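Example record for the data management plan.
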Amino acid sequence: MTKRLRAVLFDLDNTLALSFEPLSPRTAEGLSKLLAHIPIAIMSGASIERMEEYVLPTLPKDTNLSNLYLFPNTGASCYVCKEGTWQRAYNHTFTKQEFDAAVVALKEGMEKTGIVEGEPQWGERIHARENQITFAGLGADAPADKKKAWDPERVKRAKLKTYLDEKLAGLPLDIRISSRTAIDITKKGVDKALGVRWLAKQLGVSTSDMLFVGDDLGVHGNDAIVVPTGIQTRATSGPEETATIIEELIALCE
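Corresponding structural encoding:
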């Protein structure tokens, strides 16, 4: 990094914390200290409810929440804290036709491709929200080690994605293989890159003045979509390394 950063964006799952686990005290304290200096965004396929359960309660009480931007549902929506309450800054929702067609296609695709036949299941496999529909191969509550081992090369999900691409070709939807067991469906053009550009405009800075930290920035990775925005990027191996990165960023700001 050759110039002072104006904002830092973090992926959530397997970056700030493992899926469905709270931030560690070290990470939460680090984010709070960094928020005293610059805006931070958390951008994830997770729902706002999950962020409210696993992220916000871990932050110290004196954290500058006015500097925190939450982008759940792969950037389909953004939440900001104003006068102590979280308010939605934007929200890109499906039409009823898009929502119904995507859910039906996903259910049919699971059956026709056999992707989950004989597979163990922890929790629901389909999470249908107004702005994102997510397929979770082993269920949302699957243990982290099971998720990691299930489809590391994305071969299983590629078959389901191909089916969905064909079935939903006439609708303005994006279908992306995401995280370790997921496929996310959103409105066309609604993704983390949209969130990056929106935040840059909101802050009045260039995307090149911001940094994105994520665990899946490689080719075809679900974080790689931010690269064409011109944002600086830094790969992390997981929550422990991310905590170290946060401490390095604090030192640069002080």
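Summary line stored alongside the record: Helices lie at 25-35, 48-54, 96-113, 144-150, 155-167, 192-203, 239-253.
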